[in-house]
Amino acid sequence: MNQHFDLVIIGGGCAGLSLAYQLSQFGENCPKTLIIEERELYTNDRTWCFWDLKEPIHGDLAPYKWKKFTIKNNHMAFEYGCQETPYLMLPSDIFYKNTLSAIKSNTQIQLLTGEKIVDKVIKKGAWQIQTSTFLASASNVVDTRPIKTMTKKDSLMWQSFVGYEVEVEGQQFIEDQLVLMDFDSNFKEGLAFIYCLPTSNSKALIEYTVFSEELFVAEQLTDRLLEKINEYTKNAGYKIIRKEAGILPMGNQLIEQKEDPTYLFAGLFAGAARPSSGYAFQRIQNWAKECAFELKNKHQLKKFKKDAWIQKWMDLLFITVIKKNPTIGAKVFVELFKNCDVRTVANFMSDHSSPWDKLKIVTSLPALTFLSAIPELIRSKRRLDGSH
Ligand SMILES: Cc1cc2nc3c(=O)[nH]c(=O)nc-3n(C[C@H](O)[C@H](O)[C@H](O)COP(=O)(O)OP(=O)(O)OC[C@H]3O[C@@H](n4cnc5c(N)ncnc54)[C@H](O)[C@@H]3O)c2cc1C
User: Fold this and answer.
1) pTM to 2 decimal places
2) Measured from the CB, is residue 243 less than 6 Å from ligand 1?
3) Is 277 exposed, middle or buried (CB count within 10 Å of its CB: 0-12, 13-18, 19+)?
4) Is residue 58 within 6 Å of ligand 1 at its C-beta?
């Protein structure tokens, strides 16, 4: 190949494709871009959920929408309406199809799948990117490769989960009844809950999620998931249509950026994951839009926006409380939704909260529990900043 590009994007997953999609919208003014992606094929490998607030990017693609949800704890169920801020679910195959089609229609962008970076990316005048079959050079690089070997110490907490999309013969699910959190008090090594997203009366995505200091691979959570699927399907038997799993950081030390501003690390481990939830989809979309704009107009890359200090402290305090005492986590979530309106909580979870929203969140949480976590929080903050 031996071509020169304005931009090479390493990794065409959520962050890489989102950036390329935004660039594709500039038509012939789009910088000459190459995406190098390891996978051969795009499949429905994950599901992105987010609240419908302030016209979320790609929200119009989401085929599933819930206007009410339930939180369950200790055999009690609390139901909440979210008509004004519905909860959306976007299967990744729809996102990939839409972004790939926009990218392919712009001749300034090339996507190479089944290609892997084999060497260190070095700068010799321009960045040199070597795969097993070709060498390309670039003025700018956005590197979205995830950390392959995650260890416990890379994040204050982790969100590990495994989910199966299942189909039953009868009508075991209630299509408009989303279960956001159904806490499992039998799990002692973290805060565990079931998340059940019914896509029809006979199909649902059911996930077993754990917030904890340890990382759990899918196999470690599968038995618990199967037990809960039996409960949710009332032992009537079911067919597994699809599986997904993940381990997301909650409060990770961000990948250290290079001094050279023409090389940017982006994606889940570079600031996309929200510490208190691990979720990243809308944060990636907002970054991609800003970064594309900056690249086209100012010929420079844009890092992920740093979280405002107050939000960061609130997230860390929340993580610290759950880490210290996972069993109290269920109570914290129940109190949060009981004492605050859904929009306030959704705003907070989606980086849209006003100072008033933040105040409402703080005052709705058990004060003593949170105050007693402050010394631990300071230690965690130091660890995150790498100060010891
Ligand atoms: C199953 C699952 C469900 C999730 N659900 C939600 C959700 O509901 N809401 C939410 O906000 N967030 C969710 N997330 C978190 C987050 O939004 C996703 O992880 C998102 O895909 C992160 O985007 P990314 O680009 O950083 O990583 P990825 O999407 O994983 O992209 C990285 C890409 O780099 C490629 N790659 C790796 N190594 C190389 C190499 N050497 N050369 C070339 N390419 C390479 C990979 O093949 C991959 O395509 C979920 C994550 C998972 C795993």
Assistant:
1) 0.95
2) no
3) middle
4) no
